[in-house]
Every structure is written in structure tokens, then in C-alpha cells.
Design a protein that fits this description.
The protein is of the alpha/beta class. The chain has 10 helices and 11 strands. The chain has 3 domains: about 1-65; about 80-245, Rossmann fold, CATH 3.40.50.300; about 250-320, Beta-grasp domain (Ubiquitin-like (UB roll)). It has helices at about 5-20, 20-35, 45-60, 90-100, 145-150, 165-180, 210-220, 235-245, 275-280, 285-290; strands at about 80-85, 115-125, 125-130, 155-160, 195-200, 225, 250-255, 265-270, 290-295, 305, 315-320. Strand 5 (about 195-200), helix 7 (about 210-220) and strand 6 form a beta-alpha-beta unit. The longest helix has 20 residues, at about 45-60. The model has no long low-confidence stretch (mean pLDDT about 90). The structure holds guanosine-5'-triphosphate and magnesium ion. Guanosine-5'-triphosphate (GTP) binds near residues 89, 93, 113 and 205.
Length: about 325
């Protein structure tokens, strides 16, 4: 029996998908329960919503008394979280300020940023979270900041290309992040799940920066440097690379006989299959999934593919349940 779900129900489901906190999830689930057409075809869905609500309540009860707010634990949002890392005054806050609407503090003196600050960077039809951080040096790192780095999906290492200390900044960052097992530069790979990273050489609009960058590139031919200025040059390319380093794809769902929902893509890891997508849309979908129609990466539009078909960025998928 078809479920015949209404657009209002779908909208509530979208809110559930986007909910970040337990409270938001609970509100969305309650809306879904109120809006779902009550008939035999939706019994399973209704039961699932109720189960999820019960689980949320249970988890809420179990929660330990709050230990207090931890400013170094930055809740994830958007298609992925990228944390900046760099020496004092290297231009981290200015860069987050240029790419997002976060209220960052940019000053010409060092140590202006005492705690992480998060902002959302628009990228095409999605958003990437950038986190500005307090400065580090080889000698001093704020307690808690390594945890912020490790929890990220990727790092953006910032080096001041206009500074005479730019090589020291680069080598210092690499040594520190390696020693603390955040990144892995060893050939064999020594740590589990090291973070991918990008190195931005900033202040490329200032004198000496080109020369300094040349030196960095000669001394570290194994690394790639993105030359940028927070005033514009290099930022478009950096936005694209920030999306690419996350290793995610955007997938648009499509209901039979309806246009694809291009408003809000589902975010999946690169290499995900039609089955992974189905699971993300609804945990009960995989067991009923027969095949799917795909527009985009398939040989022709609306091609029927199997459950293990590997999706690509910006594919449109209609699940056949
Ligand atoms: N010309 C130019 N100046 C920049 C650029 N990026 C940053 N600056 C300047 O460099 C100084 C330091 O920038 P911030 O963004 O505050 O540096 P930070 O890395 O956040 O510094 P801390 O918070 O101490 O770690 C400020 O005076 C900025 O205006 C750039 O691309 N070009
Ligand atoms: Mg700062």
C-alpha cells in the first residue's frame, strides 16, 4: 500500500534530516507524527518515528549532568568541518572572515583569537563549516586545541607568506601536527585515519610573499601550496579545494513523477552506493530497495542501476522501492 506522504510531511522530514540537536530532532519527529497520513501503508513509518522519539527520550535521560560548555568542542554543521591551524598573526581570522559571515577578530597584533569561532562558507548549493582557531607554535598550544583539530574532517594549515618566518611557520606546523598524530607525512602511513590537509600561503598581495613562496616550494616539493590573499586572489580556487578535500558527494533525491529536489543535497562519502544513499534517506529503505534510476553519472538519463552502483557528485537518484 503506498504511503502517500504529503509535501508538509516531507518538509518536516527535511527538518529532521537537518536537525543538529536532540531538541530539534524531537520537534521534527513530533511534527512528522502529527502530519503523517494515518493508514495501513504508513504503519511502519509511524512505528519508526515513535521508536526514534522513544530513543531520543531515553538518551536524554541517560545524559550525564552537563560538565560545562567546552569551547574547543565545535559542533559539526554543513557538508563538512574544516579547522584552520597556524602560527600567530598568520591570517587565519582574516581568511575565515573573507569566506564566511562569522564574527572574527582580525588585528595587526598576534594572539587576538582566544577560542575557536565557527562560520559557514557557501559553496555552490551547499555549505562548508570553517573553524577559526587560536594560534599555535611549536612551543605553545592551547589545551584542547589538538582535540579540535582531530575532530575535524580536514585541516587548513595557514602560513604567512609575507613573513620572514614563513618557513619556520610551515615546518613548525608540520612537526607539531605530526608529533600529535593529526596528520601523517610518513611514506608508509603510521597513524590510523590521519586528517587530509591543505596549506594556504596567505598575504600573497604583500611584498616578499612571491619570493618567500618560491623558497617554500623549492624546499618542500612534496607539498602543494595555495597562494591566496584574504582580499580576493586565490579564494575561488581555495573554495573548490576545500570542498574537494572533504571527499564528499552531493546527491539529489527524486520522487517518482516529481522533479528532483535540488534544494538540499544529501551529503555522502565519495564511493557511496545507491544502497548507502537509500540508508541515509530512511533506515528502512535498504531492505525494500530493488534498484534506482540515476541521472548524471549514468550512461543515459534515468538509467536503471543496481543497489551497488557507485554514485558521483551531483547525481539525481530515484529509489525504486
Ligand atoms: N595584506 C594582507 N593582510 C592580511 C591578509 N590576511 C591577514 N592580513 C593581516 O594580517 C594581520 C593578522 O591577521 P589575523 O587574521 O588576525 O591573523 P590570525 O592568524 O587570526 O592571528 P591570531 O588570532 O593571533 O592567531 C591583520 O592585520 C590582517 O589584516 C592578507 O591576505 N593580505
Ligand atoms: Mg585570529
Amino acid at each position: 500500500m503506498p504511503a502517500n506522504l504529503t509535501p508538509q510531511y516531507h518538509a518536516a522530514e527535511d527538518r529532521y534530516r537537518d536537525a543538529k540537536t536532540a531538541e530539534e530532532k524531537e520537534t521534527a519527529l513530533q511534527e512528522m507524527l502529527a502530519l503523517i497520513p494515518k493508514h495501513k501503508g504508513t504503519e511502519k513509518l509511524q512505528a519508526d518515528i515513535k521508536k526514534r522519539l522513544a530513543r531520543l527520550k531515553e538518551e536524554g535521560k541517560k545524559k550525564k549532568p552537563a560538565k560545562g560548555y567546552d569551547p574547543f568542542a565545535v559542533e559539526k554543521e554543513g557538508a563538512g568541518q574544516i579547522v584552520l591551524a597556524g602560527y600567530p598573526n598568520s591570517g587565519k581570522s582574516a581568511l575565515v572572515g573573507a569566506l564566511t559571515r562569522a564574527r572574527v577578530k582580525v588585528t595587526d597584533y598576534p594572539y587576538a583569537t582566544p577560542l575557536p569561532v565557527s562560520g559557514m562558507m557557501p559553496y555552490e548549493d551547499t555549505h562548508i563549516q570553517l573553524v577559526d582557531t587560536p594560534p599555535v607554535t611549536l612551543e605553545a598550544i592551547p589545551p584542547g586545541l589538538i582535540g579540535t583539530f582531530k575532530a575535524a574532517d580536514a585541516l587548513l594549515i595557514v602560513v604567512d607568506a609575507a613573513s620572514p618566518d614563513c618557513l619556520e611557520q610551515l615546518e613548525g606546523m608540520l612537526q607539531l601536527l605530526q608529533e600529535r598524530e593529526v596528520i601523517d607525512l610518513s611514506e608508509e602511513g603510521e597513524i590510523i585515519a590521519p586528517l587530509p590537509f591543505i596549506i594556504a600561503a596567505t598575504k600573497i598581495d604583500l611584498p616578499k610573499s612571491e619570493e618567500n613562496l618560491q623558497v617554500l616550494r623549492e624546499l618542500r616539493p612534496d607539498l602543494t601550496f595555495d597562494a591566496i590573499s584574504c582580499h580576493g586572489p586565490g579564494l575561488d580556487q581555495l573554495r573548490r579545494k576545500l570542498f574537494e578535500i572533504l571527499g564528499v558527494i552531493r546527491i539529489y533525491g527524486k520522487a517518482p513523477g516529481r522533479p528532483p529536489d535540488k534544494g538540499r543535497p544529501f551529503i555522502l562519502r565519495k564511493g557511496s552506493t545507491v544502497l548507502d544513499f537509500a540508508e541515509l534517506v530512511h533506515k528502512d529503505f535498504p531492505k525494500n530497495l530493488k534498484s534506482a534510476l540515476v541521472w548524471g553519472s549514468s550512461r543515459f538519463d534515468g538509467q536503471a542501476v543496481a543497489r551497488d552502483y557507485i554514485l558521483e557528485d551531483q547525481d539525481v537518484v530515484e529509489l525504486q522501492l
